Amino acid sequence: MNNKVPNNRAWLLVLPMLVLVAFSAIIPLMTVVNYSVQDVLGPNARFFTGTEWFESMLNDNALQAAFLRQISFSLIILAIQIPLGIGIALIMPKRGWQASAVLILITLPLLIPWNVVGSIWQIFTRGDIGLMGWGLRELGVDYNITRNAGDAWVTIVLMDVWHWTPLVAMLCYSGLRSIPEAYYQAARIDRASKWAVFRYIQLPKLTNVLVIAVLLRFMHSFMIYAEPFVLTGGGPGSATTFLSQSLTTMAVGQQDLGPSAAFSLIYFLVILLVSWVFYTTIMHMQKDKPPHGGA
Amino acid sequence: MSYRLENTQRGEKYKTVFSKVSPAQRRNRTARSRWRANFLLGLYLILMILPIYWLINMSLQTNSEILGSMTLWPQNLTFDNYIGIFTNSSWYMGYINSMLYVVMNMLITICVALPAAYAFSRFTFIGDKHLFFWLLTNLMAPPAVFLLPYFQLYYSVGLFDTHIAVALAHCLFNIPLAIWILEGFMSSVPKEIDETAYIDGYSFPRFFIKIFIPMIRSGIGVTLFFLFMFSWVELLLARTLTATNAQPIGMIMTRTSTASGIDWGTLAAAGVLTIIPGILVVYFVRNHIAKGFALGRT
Amino acid sequence: MSWMVWTMPTAIFFSSIAAMLAGMTIWEILSPTIERKGFLPISTTRGDRLFIGLLSAAFIHLGVIGFTSLSIWIALAVSAIWLLILMRWG
């Protein structure tokens, strides 16, 4: 599969896609850069401000706090979802109608619009009408996501685990299915323990899909917006205000074009750096693999 | 590192000489671990379904029953909430709007992504790797970054509050995703097929439509599923680019909270109705979906 | 176009990026790049090194603007030197 032909006319095949994506990506990005160096008050009233917005955004305490919250959130959900996803993939049935049924059930949370996910959990965790909120209260737990920051955090993490673990599980499941049955037979004959099978047969096969899973999960959690917005509105206080929400409040709510553009660019550069590191890792892992995928 | 096939023969010998565990014991042990796996899976599925069950439960109750007492299933089953949505055009138009822009987006995306993915899977050309990476960065870009310029852009070209505006905006992340998945599926089709077709005198467009596309049917199906999924669940861009004519259902749902409190029953029913299209779509691609999640790469 | 609120500095910025891309393309056609390993931990092509250089230049600028009182021209000079080092020995 590595015998690609050098052919610069392939650009013609890429061109229609390029025009469309450029329309939706490059023109807006240029506009953001233009906004970020000016104070735009109206179509004809604007002043050049240079790097002022960048300076104030980088030193904004609220934004720095949101950034740290964002990073901790992403790390926490990765630490939970990746092992949990692997575990679920390992116990999913491999064939028959059960496999299809479990597959469809597990995918379910992924197909729900993000604001509806927020609504579902908002209802579910309310003390008066929600099963979880009511149940915890009956058990004597003082649980209230609108007043207690800790409760709000736990609920948001729980919601994200509920919402996105299926993605990790599905990725791992497809990785596991590609392991030839002969590997398992050999292990059975050697009487390898369950752990040894996992460590030396299943995990190496999973590395590829796991990198994709970490990449996708990190990126999506880094731009999470609708779910916490509906569930907690960023509160109590600003305990669960993540970057996308700070940005949207600034850009749409307060119409501060300049500062929010500068903030967007910093946000985008961080994402660009992280995705580049991940992407390079994936590409190098594929390159370093021996021809027949020894493990 | 790995168990190679050579091990099999050595293992066969060991089995007869050293086996301390009797076959009956071993069968017993596998049955027990199978049972434990099923139990854990069942537990996870129940916990997962619970919030959705609660939504369905509420959608079948009247508001007075929801607020009145804690009931684990509807005591007086009512479909009024659903009937209310289906008879009110401002409600069901939200579903039609969402469907319209999702379908438009799927069509646009698949048409431009198929040739591009073919180019990436078959040829090298100047800048191909960087182009591919740039595409992926668009998949990663937070929609919040693009909100303001999008509003200005679509307003200035006169597309604001149309379905096509949202469909085009969703291309930002759907085209890169489609190319990523399709490229994986296409790379698993042997190159010899292309070459044979060209020798047989097929022109490129004819080969692509008559031979190649039917060969990656399942890949296209899975890609369409993912396009549907990501366009259907996105709200931030769809909300910003529409006002009244093309408003998505997610935005209309916010109407349930009024000054006199929230209409929980209608909110729950509307929520349930947003899940159903997804279930229908996933049912059609259930056999290929696992491969699609690994971006066609297993 | 007026809604894009162009200014001279950003216009110069984007033109130079476009010029760099065009230049790289012409250079690539005249003498195709060979992947090699320099002081960076991975083997890179010319285009990779340019990208790494530009990305780190962006972060150098952010650092200087945000956390020091130095002039932005110093950041620009440092970035340019860094880019040259990277292209030659990276």
Describe the protein's architecture and organization.
The complex is a heterotrimer of chains A (295), B (298) and C (90). Chain A has 295 residues and is mainly α. Chain A is built from twelve helices and three strands; from the N terminus they run E-H-E-E-H-H-H-H-H-H-H-H-H-H-H. Chain A has helices spanning 10-36, 52-58, 61-91, 96-107, 114-125, 131-138, 149-177, 181-189, 194-222, 226-231, 243-253, 257-288, and strands at 5-6, 38-40, 46-48. In chain A, strand 2 (38-40) and strand 3 form a beta hairpin. In chain A, helix 7 (149-177) packs across helix 9 (194-222) and helix 9 runs antiparallel to helix 12 (257-288). By secondary structure, chain B is an all-alpha fold. Chain B has a domain at 87-293: MetI-like fold (Orthogonal Bundle). In chain B, strand 2 (257-258) and strand 3 form a beta hairpin. The radius of gyration of chain B is 26 Å and the shape is flat. The model of chain C has no long low-confidence stretch (mean pLDDT 87). Chain C starts with 7 loop residues before the first helix and ends with a helix. Chain C folds into two domains: 1-32; 40-90, no CATH class. Chains in contact: A-B, A-C, B-C. The interface between A and C is medium-sized, with 25 and 20 residues.
Write the layout of secondary structure elements.
The complex is a heterotrimer of chains A (295), B (298) and C (90).
Chain A: E1 5-6, H1 10-36, E2 38-40, E3 46-48, H2 52-58, H3 61-91, H4 96-107, H5 114-125, H6 131-138, H7 149-177, H8 181-189, H9 194-222, H10 226-231, H11 243-253, H12 257-288
Antiparallel strand pairs in A: 2-3
Chain B: H1 6-18, H2 23-59, H3 63-68, H4 80-87, H5 89-122, E1 123-124, H6 128-140, H7 143-156, H8 163-187, H9 191-199, H10 204-215, H11 217-233, H12 236-240, H13 249-252, E2 257-258, E3 261-262, H14 264-284, H15 289-293
Antiparallel strand pairs in B: 2-3
Helix pairs in contact in B: 2-14, 4-14, 5-8, 5-11, 6-8, 8-11, 11-14
Chain C: H1 8-30, H2 46-67, H3 72-89
Q: What tags apply to this protein structure?
A:
heterotrimer; B: 298 residues; mainly alpha; MetI-like fold; 15 helices; 75% helix; 2% strand; flat; C: 90 residues; 2 domains; 70% helix
